[in-house]
Specification:
The chain is mainly alpha-helical and 580 residues long. 56% of the residues lie in helices and 8% in strands. It has a 3-stranded antiparallel sheet. The longest helix has 47 residues.
Length: 580
Amino acid sequence: MQKQKQQDLQARAQSKEEFEREQQARMQKMEIARGNALTLNAFREGRKLDLDMDPQRQAGLAVANAAKDANIPGAEVIPFSEWQARLAKDSALTTEYVHMPAGFSAPTIDKDGNPVEGEGQIFIMPATKGGEIALPQSYVEQAAKYGPYSGRFSSEEIKKLQAGNSIPVEQFASLNHAVAEGRLAWVEGEHNPKLGWTGDDKNPVPVLYNSVDGKPVQHMPAGVTPDQAVEASDKRKATEAETKLKGAQTQEAIGKTRQALAEAELAARTLAGGNIPTDKDTLDNLMKAYNNLPPLAQGFLKNIQNPSDQATLLSTWAGRTDPKSLPTSVRKGSGQMTRQQYESMITRFDPTWTESKYEEVKKLDEEYQDPKRAGGSISSFGQFLRHAAKAKELSDNYNRMNSRFLDTPLNELRTKFKDDSSVVDLAVAVTGGRDEWQTIINNGHEGGKEEKSAIAVLANENSTPRQIAGAFKIMGEQGVSRLDELDQRYKTLTGTGYPNILSPKARAAAEALGLKDEIADFNTGGSVFTGASVHTPSQQSGQNPPANQGGIQVTDPKGGTHTFPDQASADKFKAQFGIK
């Protein structure tokens, strides 16, 4: 009997120990999974801000090398695509392995001689099967920078970590969880910076500080990449291809930055004079435009309390507000901004901006509205496309009906079938298209050999409807190409294409000519800027519009009251403008 009791007690003790081991293993797997999720989120958020991710990748490669030196089974560096495929097949990879970004494979050259960027790589290491790993210096630096912000380790505890010291793999997984959690908190501080000013009143310098560590933010300007873009231990090959790729990416990034700023300026026109959009669609459009801005511009706008001042900052960048109209001095404590502050902010997020942009944009707008210059070409192109589409329609009709008109000279059609409505319409299309093209030529356009041959077809009374339709097709393609030159010229300065460069009817005509893809990027609709500032700085207006009745009311930092149709819209507004 006594022996049986002892066996029962022993069995219960073993069962308890086994249960505790199972619980510990389960908790360990949960911590590994959460650490991996934090690593991925911090990396993604950092990429959104164009932060320098190389130190994190370098640390991952260094840990991979340390794992190799320690002969830890299952530790390896794999391509990102393979990593994704393995995750989909094996859930244990998420809960039993540490994952870290580990650089890129070397760039390659495709069959056409174009550079192809190397694929991202991920380091994975089993974290539940024992073993020890020596801490690399680059990883210790990452731990020292981010670990304390996790709240899991103090700064003093982190300082005890020494490069070269070996720790159990399980302990490394716990440490990596803290580093990832702290890194994500730090990145959040980059996302939500605080604005400070250095310098003096004549030369103010805006500085955005990370709201977590209090240091200047590390956002990288558009198109700028770290000097060491890849951290592989062996130097990359195909350096020339990599340089070409970086140059193309830089120009593309600058173009996207200007487009994002231009779109935000258009959306922010609803804020002029302190007017706040109260309908959901307009507010959502504003928030979307702001969220697409480069990080520095976002940070400045988040710290400008008055919505009208936000609009003025963007419109001054866009060349829609004359910098000379902004005040050079304001009453201290008023919260108002000076011209110097506006310009200093702008040159931080767009170093190419100068105060002359206002005059340059004004002159460009005048040219694009002048019927004797680019404005005349734009209008004539639209009319020409409509004439060309009509000629194609008539030609297609003749073809479908197997009509002898298709290959009969136009002068003969006019003589023998002058009362036929289709002949009259074709004659009008030819005459109108010819006249519009002459206007385009008079405005400075010089056509090539093929284009001149097509014009000769329209001028020849012996041309048939089939020949006329072919000539119109060629000239339509040339016209769209010329229109693209005008649009790109406007976009280079303003960041966005010219408003309504193609009217709805001209777009339909171009599509009928088979040019849908060629005109896809052209604007249809939108208002043309008239030259007067669409924004009024808060210090010049001094008043807020009356509040709407009903809905959710929010008081801005200047004391103005704004009404929203629902709580979600009000919360978005408060978050954007820092209202508690």
